[in-house]
Amino acid sequence: MKNILSFALIVLSILIGTYANAQTAKKIPSFQFENLQGKIVKSTDIVYDKYLTIVYFDPDCEHCVATTEDIVKNISKFKNTKMVWISFGDKTQMADFQKKYFAGNKNVTFLHDKNMKIFDAFPDAVDTPTFYIYNKSKTQIARLEKPKAQDIYKNYK
Length: 157
Prior knowledge:
globular, Glutaredoxin, 157 residues, alpha/beta, 5 helices
């Protein structure tokens, strides 16, 4: 009887833990920003196969530049992710940043947040850069502040 009760308690705790994790899983938040050409892009418009990496950044931020340079050196490790870079910084500087680091890369999109709504969608976006990584189920699997490239791409399994 003790063994059955112990087994039942173990199973119950596993089920409760699984349910709690499922309830706290963060999905991609709803948002809409303009691409650099002025077209509205909603979170539901973003199509990706394996991973989505959303980056809150500022084109003037030294940490953003260092992380981006690290990413560019390791760009082949980022082939399984769609990257969306969002900033409320100067749109011209964003365009220059895109041309300098990701010219011609179809897997990278830049969105301008002219109304500073990023904090509605990502209230924990405090430092730049902050990376949010989502899997194909649209569930957040990582949130990283000021990471190295290897800290990012190790999430793309």
